[in-house]
Design brief:
Layout: H1 3-34, H2 42-73, H3 79-94, E1 107-109, E2 112-114, H4 116-135, H5 142-161, H6 166-182, H7 187-207, H8 213-223, H9 229-241, H10 265-296, H11 302-326, H12 344-366, H13 371-385
Antiparallel strand pairs: 1-2
Length: 386
């Protein structure tokens, strides 16, 4: 099988798996919202599901715009800087909002409640990849390769930590550090920086009291799982589903799972589709990540290529965290399941990022493919048919 047939198959598989995740997620969100009838009124449930559908449509539209603009995004001199200023302002603005459940994480845009920290999970790696693409040969310089990117990272992560949102801060920090690594900075600079960060982190943890009360409570509940109500209800739902599940839109335990439509949606999947359903979901995320990494090897634009790798890592890593929390492997974090959970901000940035990635695949691979290479492949195909 020739190279372009392999690439075509990988792109098709990537699109199919993303579509399956989004479609299944819509059914699971609907089912989990209906199971919240003891918490929300039927009117509230209907409005929330309508908002979810509207977010999918809006995000798909914005994803299409990202597809069209992707050809110019990484080549633009000022567009990415303007976006960086815009998202930083959103993070500052969110700190001025009225606290919800003791935190300041949400603002309302176009009638939709959004969480700016969700945008930074994928925008910051994209911005850093664009930054390294622009400085090119200066990556080996400690100031350009490490100091400036670390200043940008600590600025954004610091604002998110102040909300406070520890889980998002840690996840964004990990993604950003990984972005620095995949962009090929000097190894000695990178490893020395990591060592310094680890030493500084240990010092802060052992000598300061930086954790919020609810964060300490989550860690205590994780160490004593029997007292963790959310986890116990989630495990009961998954256990009740058995191997093959109770059936779509069927189940009893999901009615008692808090936030089953967002943080604990895997409990709904486990009860309705069983452990086989959970394995299927994990497989979907593995395929999305795997195909994206393999497709990235065909991209010549380093900014797009590196962002695709980080996006693939984020998809699998965040899904692992969400599932790990739901089955008791990790402490409760409030991290959603990509493409499947109810969450306007997460869904929006995910679909826009996919639109950008599909645009780079089209403009950097398909449109730029040499005409003579296409003709040669057609000749090979005709020969094979004969």
């Amino acid at each position: 099988m020739n190279k372009n047939k392999v690439l075509k198959n990988r792109i098709i598989l990537f699109i199919i798996t993303v579509g399956m995740a989004l479609t299944l997620g819509t059914f699971f969100v609907y089912s989990s919202l209906k199971a919240m009838e003891y918490t929300f009124s039927s009117v509230q449930i209907d409005k929330m599901f309508q908002k979810h559908i509207f977010t999918i449509l809006l995000s798909s539209f914005l994803g299409f715009i990202a597809f069209v603009l992707s050809k110019f995004i990484t080549k633009s001199k000022h567009f990415m800087n303007l976006l960086f200023i815009f998202f930083t302002m959103l993070l500052v603005l969110v700190l001025t909002q009225t606290p919800i459940n003791g935190t300041k994480r949400w603002i309302t845009l176009l009638g939709i409640q959004v969480q700016p920290s969700e945008f930074m999970k994928l925008f910051l790696p994209l911005y850093l990849s664009w930054y390294y693409y622009k400085i090119k040969g200066k990556k080996s310089n400690f100031t350009f390769g490490i100091i400036i990117p670390m200043f940008i990272i600590f600025l954004e992560v610091g604002l998110i930590f102040l909300e406070p949102d520890l889980s998002a801060s840690i996840l964004i920090f990990i993604l950003s550090i990984l972005t620095i690594y995949v962009n090929g900075v000097k190894n000695i600079h990178f490893y020395l920086t990591i060592a310094l960060i680890i030493i500084l982190g240990i010092f802060i943890i052992t000598n300061t009291d930086f954790l919020q009360g609810y964060q300490k409570s989550r860690l205590e509940k994780f160490s004593n799982k029997e007292e963790n109500y959310q986890l116990q209800q989630s495990l009961d739902a998954i256990t009740n589903g058995g191997l093959f599940g109770s059936g779509t839109f069927i189940g009893e335990e999901k009615y008692t799972v808090p936030y089953s439509y967002s943080d604990f949606i895997i409990a709904v999947i486990g009860e309705e589709w069983g452990k086989i359903g959970i394995i299927m979901v994990i497989t979907l995320y593995f395929l999305i990540s795997r195909e994206l990494i393999l497709i990235s090897h065909y991209i010549r634009n380093s900014a797009a290529q590196n962002f695709m790798v980080i996006f693939a890592f984020w998809i699998f890593f965040q899904s692992f965290i969400n599932i790990g929390v739901s089955v008791g492997m990790l402490p409760t974090t409030g991290v959603t399941l990509p493409l499947m959970s109810y969450g306007n901000s997460s869904l929006l940035i995910t679909l826009v990022s996919i639109g950008y990635i599909m645009g780079m695949i089209y403009y950097e691979i398909i449109e730029e493919q040499p005409t003579d290479e296409i003709e040669n492949e057609k000749k090979v195909e005709n020969t094979d048919e004969v």
